[in-house]
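Notebook B, p. 112. Complex prediction, attempt 2.
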Amino acid sequence: MNFQLIIENLLSPPILFFLGGLLAVAVRSDLEIPRDVAKFLSLFLLFSIGLKGGVELSHGDDLAEMIVPLGLAVAFAVVVPFYTFYILKRKTDVYNAGAIAATYGSVSAVTFVTAVSFLQEAGIDFGGHMIAALAIMESPAIIVGVILTGHAQEKGKGKKNLKSVLHEAFTNGSVFVILLSLIIGLVISDKQYAGVAPFSENLFKGILSLFMLDMGLLAGKRISGLKSHGLFFTLFGIGVPLLNAGVCMLICAWAGVSFGNAFLLTILAASASYIAVPAAMRIAVPQANPGIYVPMSLGITFPLNIIIGIPMYYSILQQLY
Amino acid sequence: MNFQLIIENLLSPPILFFLGGLLAVAVRSDLEIPRDVAKFLSLFLLFSIGLKGGVELSHGDDLAEMIVPLGLAVAFAVVVPFYTFYILKRKTDVYNAGAIAATYGSVSAVTFVTAVSFLQEAGIDFGGHMIAALAIMESPAIIVGVILTGHAQEKGKGKKNLKSVLHEAFTNGSVFVILLSLIIGLVISDKQYAGVAPFSENLFKGILSLFMLDMGLLAGKRISGLKSHGLFFTLFGIGVPLLNAGVCMLICAWAGVSFGNAFLLTILAASASYIAVPAAMRIAVPQANPGIYVPMSLGITFPLNIIIGIPMYYSILQQLY
Amino acid sequence: MNFQLIIENLLSPPILFFLGGLLAVAVRSDLEIPRDVAKFLSLFLLFSIGLKGGVELSHGDDLAEMIVPLGLAVAFAVVVPFYTFYILKRKTDVYNAGAIAATYGSVSAVTFVTAVSFLQEAGIDFGGHMIAALAIMESPAIIVGVILTGHAQEKGKGKKNLKSVLHEAFTNGSVFVILLSLIIGLVISDKQYAGVAPFSENLFKGILSLFMLDMGLLAGKRISGLKSHGLFFTLFGIGVPLLNAGVCMLICAWAGVSFGNAFLLTILAASASYIAVPAAMRIAVPQANPGIYVPMSLGITFPLNIIIGIPMYYSILQQLY
Amino acid sequence: MDFLKRVEIVVPHPKTEKMIALLEKAKVEGYTVIEKVRGKGNRGTQDGLGLTDAFTNSLIIWYGSASEFDQLQESIRQMVLESGGICAVSDAAWVKK
Amino acid sequence: MDFLKRVEIVVPHPKTEKMIALLEKAKVEGYTVIEKVRGKGNRGTQDGLGLTDAFTNSLIIWYGSASEFDQLQESIRQMVLESGGICAVSDAAWVKK
Amino acid sequence: MDFLKRVEIVVPHPKTEKMIALLEKAKVEGYTVIEKVRGKGNRGTQDGLGLTDAFTNSLIIWYGSASEFDQLQESIRQMVLESGGICAVSDAAWVKK
Ligand SMILES: Nc1ncnc2c1ncn2[C@@H]1O[C@H](COP(=O)(O)O)[C@@H](O)[C@H]1O
Ligand SMILES: Nc1ncnc2c1ncn2[C@@H]1O[C@H](COP(=O)(O)O)[C@@H](O)[C@H]1O
Ligand SMILES: Nc1ncnc2c1ncn2[C@@H]1O[C@H](COP(=O)(O)O)[C@@H](O)[C@H]1O
Ligand code: NA
Ligand code: NA
Ligand code: NA
């Protein structure tokens, strides 16, 4: 493994602020970032990455080049919740299995933007359609997860439930903002993008750093919640992302996806949702325990991916390409 | 009409994000921008436009040149609520008539900054005193509106009520911030303005875009509230702004107001308040129905002005000048 | 005294916005900045000043040069609460004496950043370790203050109380953020700092200005609370900062502390806490009256320092150096 | 005589509009909603952390007459049963409606 | 014996300070205020949308003795009548004042 | 029969977690917390101004059976005594627990 790269990644402000947030929880500091501020920072990141992606797209990603990565994105979003569900069902009830499967089938936008930031640092290009991949991968797993648990639910209500989940899945706020910004980035002129870029582009790293401080605070508070639920979930939260990443890298290399795109697809495959899916699951599958699926994605998988995963996947891909 | 210009305006990020907000409501997305964040974005816009206006003023608007536009501003702020009140009284009670009259006599700062952004894009100058016009036009209509309804109110309390309305009208937060920033922009040195400009000026378009997303969400939620109140109010919300704009353009052309200033005065005359006036009316004229005057200004007149009005007034003025 | 300098300082945007906030309260404007937004602005300032300080430190402050200023910082933080406590005890009870002593032994980060902004305007260098001094001086006075009042408290609980105060003192959010940012600034590369600087550095003056508007609102609301508590506290709030500043300047000149560092140390010695200490005192010494110690620091000492103190200490130091 | 009842309902935040719709359909004269409250119940802790409001609750206060309450009681019960949360009632009196 | 009354007042947000001033003038021992609550009543829906707090309410809770309440009842009624909102009272008991 | 009690507690914001811990230790079935409320009491005005939450209160609502309440009453009293704030109780009935 490329330790040099891990160290360099560790020394980037976003990661350091994330670790700082973990530390704040560890020393029981009363540091707190108001929820509405965190929502604003997160909105900014989606807005910024969406616009940027749209502009890249408008500068001409090759349509042919887009098909494989987007196809892979859909495939991962659908297949991951299925296979994980059957693993999970051996160790926990159908509700928790469905909720966790959905969590890991979906993606984490913050993990993605951290990876984008890493790529830019390394000076490597990627396609604007990867932002579409991010948006595409957010929701399907929610539907698969609910369907999988749905078999165990009462007849009459199952359908109504599924309909409202479908609606929620395709209209949830973060997917909406990222797709909207992507499309707007696509249609506006370069001159007009230049008008918003001092906000959306220049502030990106700084706001990401501040946001990661909040992520550290959250992850730190969540991680302790997992202790009481046994080793299995922790191992799942480490093993499944690595497995998904591995499979994704092999397929990408084999299918000739470009290096930058392969890297971002890998991080998407490896990441787990901690906003959209938990929110949907609380309502659609209230029998599942958020005290399990939230800490798994936020306390285990998120730090794993941004601290070790990003440089590791990068150096593995370097071997493969 | 200049469709080219309408299309170009439609393709600017602020307008596109506004439409995106409308769309979010239409598809019942759960997208929401926290109120405190929206207040911050709005505070930023007032701060930014005020400072900028002050700096422009300090670079020497001709005093003589300022008199006509500012006089017109006062005239519109006072005359519009009067004439609209008498139109409105035929169709609704005195309370609603007064509240709606006040709403249309006052102005919308966001419509104004959108127009400023449009002007800058077109590379056309305007005087810093137009920001003063914005501030000046915000409050008089509140007082006129309350006086007009006041005839129908109890003797004793009318006076107390008027006094508190007068106070509110001249000290309300948004007028205060814009005037304060204007004065500060006027007195600081260019070097000091250069210190704050990377915040107040460079981020303007980006923050306006994000804020317009919120405006779209709001307008979308409001517009449906109007359905139950009949066609008259909808027609009023379209016709009165166009009438005010038309009259304003003719007077400006006749009085020799410069193109840029005429354009901004027109947008002020055409715009209706959706913050200060509704807030004042809820307290001063609680008998009026906010379910009518808020959707009219926010759901009808605001979109009309920023989507169609801005390019239309611009091309009409081009004919006149 | 150098009136020129006072005028120049008065004409800087942050000070003007502070005065604007005072004015808003005086005219009873309903202007309000949401608490969560103010917290965000304050977080930004700590983040920004911390990072910058860390980067400066990494560019090599001489270790030998750091010892005297940091030693002085600790000395002031410990000595000030002691001597003020004995003055205060003559005029008020032990609880209020302890709380006020702690308030004046600690520091105000916003006063500090205003001074930094003033120094940068003047083009004068200072050491990154001054940001460490700021962090170091925040907490010791809390502990001293509680110990001093502690003699009068019940045996059993005193210890428990002290322990929790100690913990709070060293983990309180603002100290944590500033130290974290300082360390991160120290370890990241210049290239990585360049990534966050468009956020943390370029927006500094603008955000400080907006934040000062809020400080003006707060100070304005607080100052009136002091009236009922007599002249002594007002005089204390003026006299003690000036005394601390005077002593600090003399020691610095004598000990050969550099001009920039001496200026910042002076402002730290002169400033009083209005966030961390009041928060700690409300819980640790609930018998003390926040209606006294908060208005003293926020309504008297804070404006004194930023309006008159900063240019005055600066010109006095110019005489001494 | 018709006594006044103070009905207090706590539901998950995403169910707020549904519960309000129930009250509106019954044409109650008014209600008050406190959003984003925290809490703990059978379905775990709602601590309000994270970037979503899904893990917060809404507290709804409805003052209604005993007879109105009798009519609505069962449908409120049903909805709370479905959505999670609690509902409790106590006696009160109008000072000013 | 003097029983404890729990008085709950809802007024438009811009009238909060006025209502508090009324309580303070009467020298009540304490009160609690929850700001920016939503609601619906005779004067329409206060949904908290927009950029102003004018369309939100404040909920004020005041625990006072029955005799204090008797004295204040009428002036609270009057103020709620003027400013809009509601006021209701219920019986309670101190656990710790 | 075991009646339902509605217990309402107001404590300084920094003491919220402590009070909740007390309830959790007693294994109550649930509680609801409204944070950052303003108020006035013997220890002065908590106006929520400033950059810290120290000058705000938390309002905690706990519905428990009369017997649970009897058991907890004294420790709540003690904690409110220490931390400041108030606690009052009133009678209620479940519509849906
Ligand atoms: N005994 C109780 N007292 C007060 N609030 C409760 C109680 N039980 C539940 N709640 C509230 O109702 C919410 C949902 O409850 P549940 O659906 O049982 O998890 C909780 O998060 C609490 O806010
Ligand atoms: N029956 C009720 N129960 C609970 N809250 C109410 C009720 N009626 C009115 N309110 C509250 O009081 C506010 C003002 O009422 P109104 O002045 O009648 O519009 C409403 O927005 C609600 O928050
Ligand atoms: N009589 C009362 N009615 C309602 N709330 C009260 C009352 N007394 C005190 N409070 C609340 O309890 C908090 C703390 O009270 P204290 O510790 O007495 O200052 C106050 O800030 C109020 O929010
Ligand atoms: Na995934
Ligand atoms: Na107008
Ligand atoms: Na000091």
